[in-house]
């Protein structure tokens, strides 16, 4: 019966997500600041989608994004995220703010032959420069990527969009993949950062990733920083950027404005 209930819930969520994508209010984007270790200043923010379902309450992204990825809904969902984020960037630029916004996309998006063209048209429509955004995809893409996905990433890079590999360290990719990809940022998965203060194994691993990434010319972001011990260790290993609850929780745009004012960053 539990399995039947889970199936019924999935079926309901997939159906309701279609409605949520066309109605305003249920889906929102929050922004989690990213700061530069050297200066302490905000370099950007990651856009994180949230869904407040009309009857079921808050549905976490860990539940609804895989559902979207397993159906054709990932295309309209990613389109909604891009459109919403670009609209927010345009609003921020009017007030003199310019945080670079990181947007997560799926391997399914990179399999679209026109993804880069679609994004370019959206940038034009919102009057936002390509360098104002960073596209993130998880390391799992590296294992299954195709020539088409590589073409799309190349086109995005030529447009001036920054490209980041997210959740690094959790997949099974070889280092040879990294040299073939037009990415410039590596985000270390938060599972390694959370236990950094107490795990010597994770300390060695993270130091090794930072050193290797720098040798290959990547900037390195540590995600999931929740305590000063981890922050100080990462700073001492020359990690480039920091993200996590220690710096800030994901924030609604108005709260992000207040946070930027308080941190002295535009």
**Run of helices and strands:** HEEEHHEHHEHHEHEHHEHEH
Secondary structure class reads: alpha/beta
Mean pLDDT: 91
Number of strands: 9
Q: How large a portion of the residues is in β-strands, by DSSP E?
A: 15-25%
Residue windows where pLDDT falls under 50 for at least 5 positions: none
Tally of DSSP helical segments: 12
The radius of gyration computed from the alpha-carbon positions, rounded to a whole number of angstroms, is 19 Å
Envelope shape: globular
**Describe the biggest sheet?**
8 strands, mixed, barrel
Gap from first CA to last CA: 53 Å
Summarize the amount of helix as a percent range: 40-55%
Enumerate the strands of the largest sheet in spatial order, edge to edge or round the barrel: 1-2-4-5-6-7-8-9
Describe the protein in words:
- With 266 residues, the chain is α/β, with parallel strands linked by helices.
- The chain has twelve helices and nine strands.
- The chain has helices at 2-22, 61-69, 74-94, 107-110, 115-126, 140-144, 147-159, 175-180, 190-194, 200-215, 228-236, 253-263; strands at 27-36, 42-53, 57-59, 100-104, 133-138, 162-168, 185-188, 219-222, 241-243.
Compact overview of the structure:
This protein is an alpha/beta fold and 266 residues long. 50% of the residues lie in helices and 20% in strands.
List the topology elements.
Layout: H1 2-22, E1 27-36, E2 42-53, E3 57-59, H2 61-69, H3 74-94, E4 100-104, H4 107-110, H5 115-126, E5 133-138, H6 140-144, H7 147-159, E6 162-168, H8 175-180, E7 185-188, H9 190-194, H10 200-215, E8 219-222, H11 228-236, E9 241-243, H12 253-263
Parallel strand pairs: 2-4, 4-5, 5-6, 6-7, 7-8, 8-9
Antiparallel strand pairs: 1-2, 1-9, 2-3
Helix pairs in contact: 3-5, 5-7
